[in-house]
Give the backbone structure.
Amino acid sequence: MTTDDTTAHSATTAPDFATSAAPADVVRRQYLASAAGDLEALRATLAPDVEWTEMAGFPLAGTYRTPDGVTANVMEQLGKEWDDWTAHDDTYVVDGENVVVLARYTATNKATGKPIDVRVAHHFVVRGGRIVRFEQFVDTAKVRDAMTDGAEAGGGLPDRGPGKHQSPRAKSL
């Protein structure tokens, strides 16, 4: 199901979408608030004891707690380093209180001018109409590459000249 599928999110057109406690509706309101830059509305989707985990290797890696902690340490920081940071939510998989969203991040890094367009997966746990847990899965190398100038980007194998790339194991063979 995608957010473009009218049957997938029939609640988004219902008058009670703004107050619905259905896990997918709560998560969708979080994405809409984030896209609009409405941090107050975003905080309203988060439980007071929320645990929000940005993936290891991501520039903002770590676990943040409280709605204010999440917005100050994640959303506000993204706004400082990126132009037009957007999470495009396109597919929802719902199992009870668990909501997995397949999405894309798009943005342009302010320091390098490099754009990103990277696939992500987000796992939310929603209880009592609030997000209590979030975990991000993303290709962190693509995000880091956009944040670094050409010579620093990549992190791949060292340049050994044409046709001379070897794994450490190849030396012992």
